Please model this.
Amino acid sequence: MNGRSKVSAIIGAVVMVATIVIFAISRPVIFPATILGFCFLLYSELVLFGGFIFVENLTKKWSEMLTRIGIGIPILIYAIVVFLTSLIYINIHISLVRGFIILQILLFVAVAIIIAIMIGFLISEKSKDIKVLQANSIIGSFADELRLIREQTDKKFEIDKLIESIKFTDTSIIVDADVELKNAISNLENIIKSEKVNEIIFEQEVKNIEFLIKKRNLQTKKVKQGSI
Model:
């Protein structure tokens, strides 16, 4: 539990104790509505401060802004609505228990559906972020390998062209061509390391890498179009 969560837990406990003390001091006329409404009053405070701790923990896993907006705000609104309806229910001194409970159930179901939808969305966004990071890592490793190859050959112009091409490829997704591209770069590295570089084989492998970069761009485009 981080600092803000601990502070929220302490404040929540103080507020709930204060609510109980105020209720006892005010000595309200006890009706079934009074007891039921008071219980939901405490419940709303528990939801508010417990929800804050819940959201704080989720921000460690998912986007902080989306988590606070998509989950924190619905919980806040839900807690406020429950608090206000409970306060009203306590003061009108009637015993419409069934209607009050039905209202609270509907409110709970509504906020639960909203939070479930947002959690699904956040999980999906987290998965996309992981894929982007993986793709960035792979493309970065390709560029690094080509830079090492560049230092071992006098054909720097050809390698520079490959580096520039790989730098501007789409890094939002991993595709099948990445495996072929990795193997082709490894082959080029082996060609450079040989005692006598075969110029023809070198040129063929450079052209093959150029082709695979173009192939990768086409595959990423098709995959992204298919996901729309």
